[in-house]
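Final report, results section. Input specification for complex C-07:
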Amino acid sequence: MSTKVTIIGAGSVVFSLGLVKDLCLTRSLKGSKVCFMDIDEERLDVVYRLAGRYAEDLGADLQFERTLERAAALREADFVINTATATHNEHFMKHRRELTARHGYFYAGTGMPEYHNLQLMLDVARDMERICPDAWMLLAGNPVFDGTTLMGRQTGIKVCGLCHGHYGYREIARTIGLDPDRVTWQAPGLNHNIWLTHFYHDGQDAYPRLESWIEKESAAYWRAKEEEGGVPTQMSLAAIHQYRMYGLMPVGDTPRGGGWWYHTDLETRQRWYGGSGGGDTPAGRDRIIKRKEEKFRQMKEAAYGTRIRPVDLFGDGKTTEQHIPIIDGLVNDHEGQFQVNVLNRGALAGIPDDVAVELPALVNRKGIQPLCVEPLPRKILLECIYPDWLQMERTLEALLSGDLSMMLYGILDSHQTRSYGQATAMLEALLHIEPNEPMAYIEDIEDHYRWPENWLEAPPEP
Amino acid sequence: MSTKVTIIGAGSVVFSLGLVKDLCLTRSLKGSKVCFMDIDEERLDVVYRLAGRYAEDLGADLQFERTLERAAALREADFVINTATATHNEHFMKHRRELTARHGYFYAGTGMPEYHNLQLMLDVARDMERICPDAWMLLAGNPVFDGTTLMGRQTGIKVCGLCHGHYGYREIARTIGLDPDRVTWQAPGLNHNIWLTHFYHDGQDAYPRLESWIEKESAAYWRAKEEEGGVPTQMSLAAIHQYRMYGLMPVGDTPRGGGWWYHTDLETRQRWYGGSGGGDTPAGRDRIIKRKEEKFRQMKEAAYGTRIRPVDLFGDGKTTEQHIPIIDGLVNDHEGQFQVNVLNRGALAGIPDDVAVELPALVNRKGIQPLCVEPLPRKILLECIYPDWLQMERTLEALLSGDLSMMLYGILDSHQTRSYGQATAMLEALLHIEPNEPMAYIEDIEDHYRWPENWLEAPPEP
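Structure output:
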């Protein structure tokens, strides 16, 4: 029987393209149906055409469908890859950054708990409960940590969150002169908050090599990278500082986060992340917008053009994304080890059972089975993991209770907030930000959240 | 057999005086021995003399001893009331406030985790394990939450932390026109973080009365109190604002804390706590220093003077402190209900078993037995209880690991800290603050804490 893979938010073209390529190159999944769903007809058409031409290029036996209707897309789905997002759109984020900057926030660090993307995830998961209750949801859109926990708790569907941040271990290895393919590693934690507990090269502990690199080579490396245009976050001074605080290297998106003190303003980011301040700056983000636009232009060319074929532009090699290999493992028993986000259920000590943790897992016909790993150091739990866990719990409680004062609390909890009045003004502005197109498909934020009864307006600022 | 009650830090004269008075007036404890221990010989003499004269005044049969040696004081003790503190000395605190103000902190809000008082508690508890392992420790000194948890986890002695903040329910009742003696109440949580879950007057829910007071009478009350010199924190706008956020009244020291946004500077405190800004301001604290000095002058007069007897100055009524009634309950089976801080062990849902919670308890010959109370609202757990719990855990981990970077993290975690450099400078200054006399009896803070291996100095501020 053929497998049906549905991609929600398929208009995220780069991502869909990678999935299509991996599917084409996974011969054991031949005959599968791929259903693209998006609310943006133009982007949907691009990915649909592109996929068809790519399959031709690679000689793959796949059927493609497209639809604007979520319910139709979910019918008979075996796997739902959810990459849909309401707010993670570069132009919307830029607009929001500019709005929040007028309220005194750097790089949108307002702390307001996520609403739209989580509500959207919940809507999709509830539809799946109704339409395809036995399907797997592979969550690709952020926030993976909050979303995996939310859907896992609130619905009966099988959820697995996926990210590629853990590949940061390869950058660490490469940078210090080791072959990433000869590395045995482990980095458990929460999504975007994972720590390199095991790091072996040819079976030998590679941390001493890292120590020696820091001592003897890091300064020259940073200078050279600056000249090349920027220091990779994974090997930035911020990452090494976190390593010194915690004794384990932070991996992937972990050094990109860390404490507020790395991120207060552009000058501070430049101190910790190198002269450009890294990607998470207004200028860094503008570069990303440019890159994405160029990529989309290429895709359209490959989808509709006559001179250029997809394989010419995007090659015939597999990506490093885990989605299709995991599907292959579950469907065809082609066993593999992956880094997944699933409800904990005891695999990582010190974290409640109903919280999504990021862990190595064995995937085969039996399912996705996380390895029970050793506990993280207590200091990492107390200063990194639990604060994130608590923020996630508040975000979910705000969403599920609809209590607007919890949104306010989130803003107050941002280290960038200087006064109660600044927080209430920022909240008002964010509630009334001009909605983008996807938001029309989600309950309006102002209908969803309400102040507690007899809410007390604060006295005026002095 | 006579009961021996040892008071560690007995030079805290107001507190010792109350204990002596309560002991004198608890006839079932007649024949008890009271041992005063302090490192300050002058203050120890004052309390010793005063106690003797007070017992004469009240015709009580008690024996008093005094000593400068902790080990001697603990020998054969049945109860150890620990009020000792290294840093909670008004003059030291004032000096520290002035130092931290020069680094940009208002009212010493640096966030550096407690060291001296906790280490002192641990030293006392370890001595008790050795010398009087069956005695009860009644902890009177702050931090009660951290200290009760620490001693309960690290030693085998019986520990109960006591505070009087819960009597705030009486102020609430009185202010809204109810008779506190006819109130049935409950306010569980963590010390300094307790919430009025039950509030009945003559068996009727008294919250509607509070609602009507807020609507119709609060404004006039605040104006009147301003004219009298200050609004009580328990009924301040800050307290009512917390009530609106959480649906339950915060009790005692709870409204005195709350979010950082009530406490950023004097003007902000004045908005929330009334025109004077309350006791937790530099000027408010100076008033407290004056009051304490005047009280100590009176005590000396009553201890050594010929014209004045203790009973003339301090009366012949019991205090509302719980220490002696609890001892009477444990020793003589004179059962009572008290508000205690003990390791949770399942009494308050959602809090780990090995964390000290504040709860109502029944005390009699069987021991101190907390009531299993209903869980607190999830919003209170997520925004008030868990953040405090996490901070306590970090404080204890810093103490037990001796990791100086955890002290730095505490300062970085203060909402008043603006940059990494400000935090490191504040840390250095606090480590080198001129030690006061009690600190000589505790391991030096600079010996106790060390940076992690190969600590990385931050790059210079721009």
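Residues 66 and 133 of chain A are 21 Å apart (CA to CA). Chain A has 18 helices and 15 strands. This concludes the modelling results for the funded period.
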